[in-house]
Amino acid sequence: MTAEKSSNTIEISINTDVLVIGTGAAGAEAAEVISAQGYKVAVAGDGGQDIAQSGRAELIEGAHIRDFAGVAGDFRACFVKDGQRLERNFGAVVIAPGRNVRPQAEPFGLSLGERVITLGELEKILADGNARSKLGGAAVALLLNLTWEGDPQYTARVLEASLAIQQLEGATASIYAGNVKVAAPGLERKFTYVREQGVVCFKPMEKPSIEQTGDKIRITTLDSILRKTLVAEYDYLVVEEKAEPSDRDLDLAYSLRLDTDLEGFLPSNNVHRFPVNSNREGIYIAAPGLGANIALRIKELFGDGVKSVPADRAVVDPEKCTICLTCYRCCPHGAIFWQDGVAAISPLACQGCGICASECPMDAIQIGGFNDKDLRRQVREAVAATQKPAIVAFCCQNSALEAGRAAAEFGMDLPAGLKLIKVPCAGKVDVEFIMQAFVDGADGVMVAACHEGNCKAERGNLFARWRVNEIRKRLEALGIDKQRLLFTTFASNMAKGFAETAAQFAGSL
Ligand code: SF4
Ligand code: SF4
């Protein structure tokens, strides 16, 4: 990656080759849509002959990532293939997650057998003309999202299978479903259609009781719609297949510094993020049917191979950097690398959250639009200009600032002495800014962040809460009432909540 400086932007030349990891349906779809845009694609994984035959992508068969480094536009992957190391450079990476599947018979005290089968086994039977005939005239019950949260793809498979059963001579399908996930194109409509075709759907209020007696399976359930206990007998029971993250994905998450959700799946949940984005710019997570989203993200990142980005999103002063690694460890977006023996920040990968700047022990990092000098001046002015009680509220621009401004615009009662200071993320509220506000004469300081799990910078709110807790201890040690420092969280639509919290805080000072 090369960079040339203009006045306030940098032109970056980007490597436009893409690595797709995973040769399954989602990997093949991603490879196809990306290569259709004219970018070179290499697919790494086991199998994948159909991808190679399509001629749309190079197949690096049997290659597994050993080391991974770099930033968006300039990643370096080191594979091991047949015992040999193979190094390649890519501008972006797409991971098609794999899944381990665990049949859920045991939670109901059942064992898999001829009458108790998994969804995968049912799909095989339905696909085989001879085997399918044994389901003719049978009553089949399918369980859906009773033992795990499920996902739209799994829901789609259950709906397809139940419809196929219902269309067999004399056969009936019934679905016992927990929360049905229909957040995929056309799935809500399909769910309605399946019911119109005669598939019966039950919504148990609690886990159904299921017994197998000989060739029959009896299900007793308290239905949440009819509000009564229902007992029905079936010839076959199709238990759920609970998906678990594959070992490969857990290894990839570690090597590529990707966040996972609480169960270990890629990507981590984040309401601020578009589908397929991970916490790192240039690394995307594929899923069947999301090829168009992947293509769009890659196009946005690469363009025609040269990208213009702000020159000062986050900048390290090399004279001050002591290579302590703090910024590298705390950057949630993997935007920091090493150049000429000191830390450097990729303007393409950096999201400008400012966590690194607040954590750097040498104050070596400045954030464009939020430099320390300006923020100190804003704190001074806020305290000087305000009425009593003087409250300085550091507000994340993605949530609390919106809520606070909306409260003011809607004419809600806000304390007269409240001043909002915009920060890129609560993770940019330095310890020294909070202490300075008190020294300058603030009666109270609010640090207002996004709710836990909703931080655009993944964990800027956690850094902010941790710093506030530390400062409250220091205030207490100095004999200052720690209640004068408040950590709080908002969503951007919480104008009323913001006004109430601010009023309550002012009243407590
Ligand atoms: S935290 Fe500061 S001193 Fe440490 S490596 Fe990063 S820029 Fe250098
Ligand atoms: S500002 Fe945020 S995204 Fe950018 S380098 Fe610092 S921690 Fe990473």
Give the topology.
Elements: E1 2-5, E2 9-13, E3 18-21, H1 25-36, E4 41-45, H2 49-54, E5 58-61, E6 64-71, E7 74-81, E8 84-90, E9 92-95, E10 99-103, E11 116-118, H3 119-127, H4 129-132, E12 139-144, H5 152-166, E13 172-177, H6 187-196, E14 200-202, E15 209-213, E16 216-223, E17 228-234, E18 236-239, E19 241-245, H7 247-255, E20 283-285, H8 291-302, E21 306-310, E22 314-316, H9 326-330, E23 336-339, E24 342-345, H10 355-359, E25 365-367, H11 372-385, E26 391-396, H12 400-409, E27 418-423, H13 431-440, E28 444-450, H14 460-477, E29 485-490, H15 495-508
Parallel strand pairs: 3-4, 3-9, 4-5, 9-20, 11-18, 12-13, 12-18, 13-14, 26-27, 26-28, 28-29
Antiparallel strand pairs: 1-2, 2-21, 6-7, 7-8, 10-19, 15-16, 16-17, 22-25, 23-24
Helix pairs in contact: 1-8, 3-5, 5-6, 11-13, 12-15
Brief sketch in words of this structure:
With 509 residues, the protein is α/β, with parallel strands linked by helices.
The helix count comes to 15
* Radius of gyration from CA coordinates: 28 Å
Count structural domains: 4
Give average pLDDT, whole number.
93
Going by CATH, what is the homologous superfamily of the largest domain? FAD/NAD(P)-binding domain
Biggest sheet strand line-up? 5-4-3-9-20
**Percent in helix:** 25-40%
Beta-strand residue percentage: 25-35%
Describe the structure.
This protein is α/β, with parallel strands linked by helices. The chain folds into 4 domains: about 1-100 and about 245-305, FAD/NAD(P)-binding domain (3-Layer(bba) Sandwich); about 100-245, 3-Layer(bba) Sandwich (FAD/NAD(P)-binding domain); about 315-365, 2-Layer Sandwich (Alpha-Beta Plaits); about 370-509, Rossmann fold (3-Layer(aba) Sandwich). Strand 12 (about 140-145), helix 5 and strand 13 form a beta-alpha-beta unit. The protein is globular, with a radius of gyration of 28 Å. Mean pLDDT is about 95; it is low at about 1-5. The structure holds iron/sulfur cluster (SF4) (2 copies). One iron/sulfur cluster binds near residues 314, 350, 351 and 367. One iron/sulfur cluster (SF4) binds next to helix 9.
